[in-house]
Amino acid sequence: MYNELPAKELLGVEEALLHDPELATACADLLLAQRTLDGLRREPRAETTEAILRYSRTFLAGS
């Protein structure tokens, strides 16, 4: 999935995927999940950051 296998081992995995439909389906599901997760937002929305900062300021005001 992350292209980290040595070529010899990769050939073995590809061979297994060709001959094991259940393994191929599981691999396809994992690849789809990987693509979906890669497309997700990796930072909070500006509104979320602002809400956290507003909340943290309540502690500074009480000091």
What does this structure look like?
It is a single chain. With 63 residues, the chain is mainly α. The protein has one domain (7-61). Helix content is 75%, strand content 0%. The chain is built from 3 helices and no strands.
Task: Explain briefly what this protein structure is.
75% of the residues lie in helices and 0% in strands. It has helices spanning 7-19, 21-38, 46-61.
Topology summary:
Blueprint: H1 7-19, H2 21-38, H3 46-61
Helix pairs in contact: 1-2
Structural class: mainly alpha
Tally of distinct domains: 1
Report, as a whole number of angstroms, the end-to-end distance. Answer: 51 Å
Q: Globular, elongated, flat, extended or rod-shaped: what is the shape?
A: rod-shaped
The proportion of strand residues reads under 5%
Write the H/E string, N to C: HHH
Number of helices: 3
Helix fraction by DSSP (H/I, runs of at least 4): over 70%
Low-confidence stretches: none
Overall pLDDT level: 90
Relevant terms:
3 helices; mainly alpha
